[in-house]
Amino acid sequence: MTSEHLDAWTASGAAALIGRADRPPLDPPAGLIDAVARLGRTLDVDAEALLAERASISGFTRNGDVSCGGGTRLLPVADGWIAVSLTRTDDIELLPAWLGCDVTGAPFATVATHVRARAAADVVERARLLGLPVAALGELRDPRPVLATSFGARPPLSSPPLIIDLSSLWAGPLCTRLLLERGARVIKVESLARPDGARRGPPEFYKRMNSGKESVVVDFADQYDIARLRELLATADVVVEASRPRALEQLGIFADDVLTEGPAVWLSITGYGRAAPMRDWVAFGDDAAVAGGLVVWDAAGPCFCADAVADPLTGLTAAVAVLDALWGEERVLLDVALAHVAAGIMN
Asked: 3-state secondary structure string, the chain?
């Protein structure tokens, strides 16, 4: 880590996002500074500013063991710490089934009380069976941020390359935004019933992620629309999706099948990767970072490291992986996982 890189980190506003609200900011891990600088050089972007972009727009700041956005907490358990994200209505509704008790007060206070004396592995396992985004601090120590599987020789690319973007929120849209800035044509596909969740936040953030992309809306309950989507995927040079594999598989769309005749690159962004059982685990940027050990510490315990940091880190990492793949001569499936990206920085 050079002083130049640290200065860039500070100037971006990211430095103000680490630590407790009533204390001076904490220094980021050296590995994070180095990784962000490297990704920025590769993509010729201000990567430090991209990490702080959502917080700058939303007015977020550091909150220690509460995430910048407020939806995730670091909580002590009998043998360590866990991260619990309660950002969806469904998450709150599942708390009684997870904890085995009624939830009558503040949700996080109830969770904290009921997990304090329990082992992290037991708490996390039960949460994941229910589809809750819960992670044990540092549980993932496998630094393999990108797994590439070859599907033979790739076809010639369109000019400009056509990217079909099925992703939402942050990591996937950031990746395709960076590819758009490098001359690709991007078509964003949204569900009629469940549009991109980023639309529920500040409009400026959604605009930053998706401005300049073409748009298609698909009714995933309509077989005609699903058939149109399959045709669209077959014309793509790159497909980007950021959901658990079963989401598309339930529609009869399998990455392996599409890759045999269609795009040159299929980019799959998940929380923990495409392999069972982790393919079904739910994750968001804050809890995935915790799973990879990407936190900072003070005397009171661990603190979140910037705003949902695994999301922008994964978007940057994925963009580099796609560009590298397009320089190659093979069709590839790129398996990029938020938690593994975080673990790669810390290990």
From this structure: CCHHHHHHHHHHCHHHHECCCCCCCCCCCHHHHHHHHHHHHHHCCCHHHHHCHHHHHHCCCCCCCECCCCCEEEEEECCEEEEEECCCHHHHHCHHHHHCCCCCCCHHHHHHHHHCCCCHHHHHHHHHHCCCCEEECCCCCCCCCEEEEEEEECCCCCCCCEEEECCCCCHHHHHHHHHHHCCCEEEEEEECCCCCHHHHCCHHHHHHHHCCCEEEEECCCCHHHHHHHHHHHHHCCEEEECCCHHHHHCCCCCHHHHHHHCCCEEEEEECCCCCCCHHHCCCCHHHHHHHCCCEEEECCEEEEECCCCHHHHHHHHHHHHHHHHHHCCEEEEEEEEHHHHHHHHHC
State the pLDDT at residue 5.
62
Which pLDDT tens digit goes with each residue over 326-336? 999 999 999 99
Interval 87-136: pLDDT, tens: 999 999 999 999 998 888 899 999 999 999 999 999 999 999 999 999 99
Which structural domains are found in the chain, ordered by start? 3-58 (no CATH), 72-139+290-304 (no CATH), 146-276+311-346 (3.40.50.10540)
pTM reported for the whole predicted model: 0.96
